[in-house]
Fold this protein.
Amino acid sequence: MYAIRMLQRFHCEPLVGIYVGAWFLFSVTGLWMLFQYVSTPGGQPAAPQDWPSECSIERATDAQTLVMFVHPHCPCTRASLRELERVVAQSGGAVNPRIVISLPSEAPADWRSTELRNLAERIPGSIVIDDADGEEARRFGVGISGTTLLYDARGKLAFQGGITAGRGHQGDNAGES
């Protein structure tokens, strides 16, 4: 409304004012929708409360095991791996990170060598595991890259979710805590 009055004050065509008002409305709506998307976590099925017995991922029996599932080409996962690096550094060795990278069996060679894999391998104490056709992800009920599960030394689920403030955003957040 303000934009329309300003345009009319300068003797602009009323139609231009309508266009400017519509542009403003669409812009605000678009920004609101983008914010909603970024701040809404992906749907998560329930992870098993106990570490799956048929799992091939080695679980630490003397400390917590943190498992992050990664799609090697997901742009938002970079932030998740950087947050994982912070979590591991702050844990003082209390967390044993396992980073599970999903690899389709028929994927080309460039699926294995990615910047995300390099970042995962640089996290101190991390063990990077290739997950052929997502079998381990299915065992844990995971379908979204960046999903993080924390199991205690007894193999009981202590945390499930994301460790970023929003999709692709680093910074303080509840999941990091």
